[in-house]
Structure formats: C-alpha cells, structure tokens
C-alpha cells in the first residue's frame, strides 16, 4: 500500500495534477484502485492520460511486474477510478 500512497501523493502534492487521490489496495488480489478528483488535464478516460500513465508505470517499476491500467467514471465521491492490476 505504501507505493500506491506515495504515487497518489505525488500526483496531488508534487505534480499538482489532481486535487485529491484516495487509494484502495488489495496486494493479495494484485489490485490498486485510486479514486481521483479534479484532474488538471481533463477527463482520465482519454487515451494516454498522464495520471493513468504515471500510476501504471510507477507501480510496474516499483513492483517489477507488468501492470494493466483501466480508467472508468466514478461515483459522486470522485471523478474517475483508476484500477491497476498485476500478477506475480
């Protein structure tokens, strides 16, 4: 969970690409979901959005495994949900 939290914090605090990012980590299931709000670059469902790319590449590098990324519209608590999955 620490890696996902660091990546989410970087998007909000360091790069200021998001107003907020909340992580939900399931290491045993090989999944991290990040609920995001207020992207500086518009909707995350666009092709090759920098937020989704940053999360996917950051997790792949940190975990040293291939990672898939799926971005979907979220509910009233967030604008989008970025789900990253991997298997070891």
Q: Could you provide a short overview of the structure?
A:
With 88 residues, this protein is of the alpha+beta class. The protein has one domain (2-85).
- How far apart, in Å, are the first and last alpha carbons? 16 Å
Sequence of secondary-structure elements: HEEHEE
Q: Say how many strands there are.
A: 4
Which percent band covers the strand fraction? 25-35%
- Return Rg in Å: 12 Å
Helix amount: 25-40%
The average pLDDT value, as a whole number, equals 94
Biggest β-sheet: strands ordered side by side in the sheet: 1-2-4-3
Count structural domains.
1
Number of helices in the DSSP assignment: 2
The main sheet comes to:
4 strands, antiparallel
Write out key terms for the chains shown:
globular; 4-stranded antiparallel beta sheet; 30% strand; 88 residues
Topology record:
Layout (H helix, E strand, L loop, with lengths): L1 H13 L5 E7 L4 E7 L12 H14 L4 E6 L6 E6 L3
Antiparallel strand pairs: 1-2, 2-4, 3-4
Structure description:
- This protein is globular.
- 24% of the residues are buried.
- 31% of the residues lie in helices and 30% in strands.
- It has helices at residues 2-14, 50-63; strands spanning 20-26, 31-37, 68-73, 80-85.
- The chain contains 2 helices and 4 strands.
- It has a 4-stranded antiparallel sheet, covered by helices on one side.
- Helix 1 (2-14) packs antiparallel against helix 2.
- It is of the alpha+beta class.
- The protein has one domain.
């Amino acid at each position: 969970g620490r890696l996902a939290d660091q990546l989410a914090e970087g998007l909000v605090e360091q790069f200021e690409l998001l107003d907020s990012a909340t992580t939900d980590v399931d290491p045993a299931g090989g999944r991290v979901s990040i609920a995001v709000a207020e992207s500086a670059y518009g909707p995350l469902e666009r092709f090759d959005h920098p937020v989704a790319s940053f999360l996917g590449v950051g997790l792949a590098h940190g975990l040293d495994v291939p990672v898939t990324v799926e971005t979907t519209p979220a509910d009233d608590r967030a604008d989008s949900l970025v789900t990253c999955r991997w298997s070891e």
